[in-house]
Design a protein that fits this description.
- The complex is a heterodimer of chains A (117) and B (113).
- With 117 residues, chain A is mostly beta strands.
- Chain A is 0% helix and 57% strand.
- In chain A, the strands form 2 sheets. In chain A, strands 2, 4, 5, 9, 10 and 11 form a 6-stranded mixed β-sheet that branches. A 5-stranded antiparallel β-sheet of chain A has the order 1-3-8-7-6, with no helix packed on it.
- The radius of gyration of chain A is 14 Å and the shape is globular.
- Chain B is mainly beta and 113 residues long.
- Chain B starts with a strand and ends with a strand.
- Chains A and B meet through strand 4, strand 5, strand 9 and strand 10 of A and strand 5 and strand 10 of B.
Chain lengths: 117, 113
């Protein structure tokens, strides 16, 4: 079974610090990687996506992908209390037997981040 | 405002009753998905549809059915609800298959008593 693993947390950082969220995945053929943020009682919203090895930056957020190590991370610089939420890692790979082209998105269980003022 | 609309927002349902959760999107996305989210288990895929007229089973399809008669609508039906189906249900859509980022609806909180 293809798995996506995240530390459930809670991860607690002080305001202004860098928050580092980590995710590992088991399917070596995975092609697309996503980070979603979910506030309590709300739906997930896309923060970042990355397809290639290396870093991708968007404002205070940086996604890092290392396919050889099967590892994707999200860095949040200058963390704010409003960043306090659960962060979901999602990984997309081919699903099913050969001959088909069905992609499957697998979510990790999420890491709860708390940014303390 | 473009997006995904789910209805109802919440529902309390007696076990054994039939229930349809509605999902409509106006972004002309081809792919649509139904997830359930439970504490400690994360988001799990129930059913999906890569394009109108086609559907597929996800990770936890038992007890649920879907249809995709057109691009915009993707209803999820519980034929005979059981308490283990108490959950928060999210509908999502994407322009293409799962390599594209998902857009989520606001969710339906369902309690089966």
């Amino acid at each position: 079974q293809k798995e996506v693993e995240q530390n459930s947390g809670p991860l607690s950082v002080p305001e202004g610090a860098i928050a580092s969220l980590n995710c590992t995945y088991s399917d070596r053929g995975s092609q697309s990687f996503f980070w979603y943020r979910q506030y309590s009682g709300k739906s997930p919203e896309l923060i970042m996506f990355i397809y290639s090895n290396g870093d991708k930056e968007d404002g205070r957020f940086t996604a890092q992908l290392n396919k050889a190590s099967q590892y994707v991370s999200l860095l949040i610089r200058d963390s704010q209390p409003s960043d306090s939420a659960t962060y979901l890692c999602a990984v997309c790979g081919l699903h099913g037997s050969s001959g088909g082209s069905n992609y499957k998105l697998t979510f990790g269980k999420g890491t709860l981040l708390t940014v303390n003022p | 405002i473009a997006g995904i609309t789910q209805a109802p927002t919440s529902q309390i349902l007696a076990a054994g009753r039939r229930m349809t959760l509605r999902c409509t999107q106006d972004m002309r996305h081809n792919a649509m998905y139904w997830y359930r989210q439970d504490l400690g288990l994360g988001l799990r895929l129930i059913h999906y549809s890569n394009t109108a007229g086609t559907t597929g089973k996800g990770e936890v399809p038992d007890g649920y059915s879907v249809s995709r008669a057109n691009t915009d609508d993707f209803p999820l039906t519980l034929a005979s609800a059981v308490p283990s189906q108490t959950s928060v249900y999210f509908c999502a859509s994407a322009p293409g298959p799962a390599t594209s980022p998902l857009h989520f609806g606001n969710g339906t909180r369902l309690t089966v008593t």
